[in-house]
Design a protein that fits this description.
Blueprint (H helix, E strand, L loop, with lengths): L5 H5 L5 H18 L3 E5 L5 H6 L9 E6 L3 H7 L4 H7 L4 H15 L3 E7 L14 E8 L2 E8 L4 H20 L1
Length: 174
């Protein structure tokens, strides 16, 4: 069977084992550089934390994570200012950035990652369709938010979002 082209692969969400393999490559770098990571994730529901803690010894860099599905959890656990939620909505770039910053600050990590979005198949609102996800990083050398509009099923939207979070992590430590 021929290998899939990059275009064909782009139409598929990454599989969990592929994300775990990518994390395996980051594992020794994070440990050697004594970098620490914290996450606040909404639509991925802990999936990013699962990938970050996939390998033995991950406690050397993974400080922990928050599953901040509700707006209340976002404000209480990740200290997202309520006015951001009211003015931009939970699914927005500014809230993703606030989640990343809040996770980093609350858990005393050097790098914070934040994810918020609509994994589907329900939850769309006017202007915010299913598959809309914002992924943010707050790190010493990189502070950015990526907006994605996935067309996968719920599982695929969540896996693809974690894949982007790993890309941001790779950029931040690269």
């Amino acid at each position: 069977m021929p290998a899939k082209s990059a275009a064909a692969r782009a139409k598929q969400a990454p599989a969990y084992p592929d994300l775990a393999a990518r994390m395996a490559a980051l594992h020794p770098v994070l440990r050697k550089r004594k970098l620490t990571i914290a996450v606040a994730e909404s639509c991925t529901g802990g999936l990013l934390g699962a990938i970050l803690s996939e390998h033995s010894g991950s406690s050397a860099y993974f400080r922990g994570g928050m599953e901040v599905y509700s707006d209340d959890a976002k404000t209480v656990l990740a200290e997202v200012p309520p006015q951001l939620l009211h003015s931009h909505g939970a699914v927005s770039g500014v809230v993703a950035a606030a989640l990343a910053r809040g996770a980093r600050e609350k858990l005393g990590a050097k790098i914070g990652l934040g994810i918020t979005g609509i994994a589907g198949p329900t939850g769309a609102t006017p202007g915010k369709p299913i598959g809309l996800v914002y992924i943010a990083i707050d790190a010493p050398k990189l502070q950015t938010v990526q907006k994605k509009q996935w067309t996968f099923d719920r599982a695929g939207n969540r896996l693809a979002s974690v894949g982007v979070a790993l890309e941001l992590l790779e950029r931040a430590i690269g």
